[in-house]
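For this section, I looked closely at the sequence of one protein beside the tokens encoding its backbone, which the following lines show:
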Amino acid sequence: MDLKEIYESTIAGNAPKVKELVAQAVSEGVNPGEIITNQLIPAMAEVGDRFARNEFYVPEMLIAARAMQGGLAILKPLLADDDITSAGRVVIGTVKGDLHDIGKNLVSMMLEGAGFEVTDLGVDVAPEKFAEAIKEHQAQVVALSALLTTTMTMMKVTIAALSEAGIRDQVKVIIGGAPVTQSYADEIGADGYADDAGGAVKAAQKLLATT
């Protein structure tokens, strides 16, 4: 089979086709890590680039990410420890008091599509829970989301909680969400800011490349 079809079907957001092709590739003996590294990750990188060029919008990104996740669901249980090199470990969540999750979910899926190991804590996440998860999963990056001006202040509280837990210097903090800006990131001492899912992936990659 032509593995490029997996790449193209992922970009197109054709989840049933991606699952079918991935299952076929596995049955033909293709290494699961090879499918992820050479097809799914490049496909999601292309999706992010198209979004940056205004050729794709949020709905297209979402359906492509869901198609990618359908393929990953088949492949992950088959992966040996040395099949694929992780891009890094990320803990993500929407801050305490905020129940919005669409943007956070998209960032989570895009990070996973870029090869990161992602632990998604969901919404309304207390600062202490972020700290606990970072320790438990030995996360290198924590991504904080907020969609309201009233809840974005919890980002500062969360960063303070990481300092209190003695782990602030062990993890890079990326923040994002509708009301969030680069100047706010600078003000509260975050390491990075992203205004969309593709930007969050690039920010995480850049921050880990400098460590």
